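Appendix B, record 7
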Amino acid sequence: MSNWEYIVGHSWAVEMLAQGLANDRLGHAYLITGPDQVGKTTLARTFAQALNCTAPEAERPCGHCRPCKLIAADRHPDVKLVLPETSGRGKLTLKIEAIRQLQQDLNLSAYEARYKVAILKRFDAATIGAANAFLKTLEEPPGKVVLLLTATDADMLLPTIASRCRTLNLRPLPPDLIEQSLATRWHVPAEKATLLAHLADGRLGWAVQAAQDDTILKERSDQLGQLHQALAGRRVDRFDLADKLSRKPEALPDLLKTWLSWWRDLTLLSQRRGQPISLMLTNVDEVPRMEPLAASWREAQITDSLNQTNVALWQLERNANTRLVLENLLLVYPLPVRV
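Structure tokens (predicted):
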């Protein structure tokens, strides 16, 4: 069985790459775009395996030969994975020094591979200097070299870079396909697979990671617990919570994104007009808690809460006063309904 079959979804991209290889119509550079953890690097590695697999042509990439195993482990001497550096604040940067080192490597003869391959992950994090330096390699690539760039969006690259690549834009996968893959390939229990498929936002890589790392769902549970604490509390309780949360500003973007997702689902529930919307929801395990809130709160209260959560994220990205942002946010959220 070809290793192409392990790519979940993106069949059109697989066919394009496989046909190009079979018909000897390879491009020298490909740009694979799409959301984080949607499968861009997995597709790039599998293509690198196909280019250098030693199995019969119909079985490439086999996933079992020496080149395939080395490439899967990022240890093949002729297949380079170039990663951006992460700063103290979590910002990714691909620097010119990494590009120059790669250019030196690509100009050397291959050690054992048919094709030398460079996988440049998150090329949208490249500095202007790094991008301009790499442009020379794109314009005059060495022979038997294939360049594979990944990015979240082609528009975030210099037009001169994107125009010299064949672009493959990977789209988010539907929840049912992610759920099926988790259950059959990674043997995730059915209820957990359903939840992860909806939380994944079309990103199979995230779902697999969350299935294997319990801390991801635990963190989400803690974030939702803080939201429920806020919604159940009086104004004075919310001021106390704002003070507590403001002491860990680095955790707030992820926290508010989880809250934003919850409010989005509640908005859909409040507007459904009797229509089934389960496939559109993200936090499917929260529906029993949301249903009575959707019925008791006014639609305007819910949409105001959704919008203010989005505003709070925007404000924090621009270094607004953290505690003030949180206090304003929690004051917009509806107070508990007293029976």
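Remarks on this record: The beta strands are 29-33, 79-82, 85-86, 92-93, 116-120, 145-151, 166-169. The radius of gyration is 24 Å.
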